[in-house]
Amino acid sequence: MTESKPNWRPWARGYVGYPKSMKHNPGFLALVNDAKARVQEIDITEYQKLPREGHLLIDVREDHEWAAGHAAGAIHLSKGIIERDIETRVPDTSTKMVLYCGGGYRSALVADALRQMGYRDVISLDGGWRAWNAAGLPVTKD
Questions:
Q1: pTM for the whole thing?
Q2: 31-134 has which CATH code?
Q3: How far apart are CA 69 and CA 111, in angstroms?
Q4: Catalytic residue among 35, 101, 114, 125
């Protein structure tokens, strides 16, 4: 029997295929918890109650995560570029935006940054992509 080895990619969180139970570092968690104290979060059940129209769904994950699959109807502005590009893509600071990442940590950080930039209706989806899939919501690949 051959053991499978993780697909090492130093640019992607150390490597792709890290265990889902991997614990985040304390400094990162402190940063996320600080951001979460200032931003609005909803879980997947609350998201499903939102009207389908009236908000912009934004995937803030990395390019390779987006390419592997994403929420149907989402646009992609990764955490690495959203602050640079948001004013061009979404010039109206009153636009309701729901942000998601893999689990809700990066989206909270981005929501806080957008709040600081003057966006008034930004929501982080707690549980992110994992919750989206667990709920059986539509996914697509471009």
A1: 0.83
A2: 3.40.250.10
A3: 22
A4: 101
